[in-house]
């Protein structure tokens, strides 16, 4: 399929290797940190953001907003991610966390693939929350297709949008594909990335937002 694509916007270059959240429920902090990193040209701490969302706010939009706005994020080296950390809610940042802390707010955007192109053209990496489908769990050839609405919720970072130049199987020419960066390690999809067809995206995507820094 990739040979039949025209890339409308593509920010995949010069990004570090994808992370791996392990079994912890930290996907929203991973996807958001990837977007925030781009603004700062700095690797920020996923672990600190997840903690800062609060015991009852982790994995939620209100918790994320509070964590980004009020606590911010220090550099990743101050508190690297630990996939084995117990989610008991009572842990605290280590003494190595000293700042500076980078603050931001999420701004809701449309999840329409064609509209995501503008955000990418502006240098922003949208964060999207999707319901998880069987094809998302195991994207054959790095492509997620179908019209299953899925279940639950999982956050990813949008890094590119492409368009088909010709029909590929049942996917027609002109169809958009959203390239997402996951936090399940490099063995998922193609080196941690996958293309989601427009029909699959419209069926399972729930909402999207971008990160806007509130300090310099």
Can you characterise this structure?
Helix 1 (27-40) packs across helix 2 and helix 2 (46-52) packs across helix 3 (61-71). The chain contains six helices and eight strands. Strands 1, 2, 3, 4, 5, 6, 7 and 8 form an eight-stranded mixed beta sheet that branches. 24% of the residues lie in helices and 25% in strands. The chain has 216 residues and is α+β, with helices and mostly antiparallel strands.
What key attributes describe this structure?
alpha+beta, Cathepsin B, Chain A, eight-stranded mixed sheet, globular, Peptidase C1A papain C-terminal domain-containing protein
**Total domain count:** 1
Radius of gyration: 17 Å
Secondary structure class reads alpha+beta
Q: Order of helices and strands, N to C?
A: EHHHEHEHEEEEHE
Summarize model confidence as the mean pLDDT: 94
- Strand % is 25-35%
Q: What's the helical proportion of residues?
A: 10-25%
Amino- and carboxy-terminal Cα gap: 41 Å
Morphology: globular
The biggest beta sheet reads: 8 strands, mixed
Q: What name does the CATH topology carry?
A: Cathepsin B, Chain A
In the CATH classification, which architecture applies?
Answer: Alpha-Beta Complex
Number of strands: 8
Can you tell me the CATH class? Alpha Beta
Uncertain regions spanning at least 5 consecutive residues = none
Q: Can you say what the CATH homologous superfamily is?
A: Cysteine proteinases
Count of individual helical segments: 6
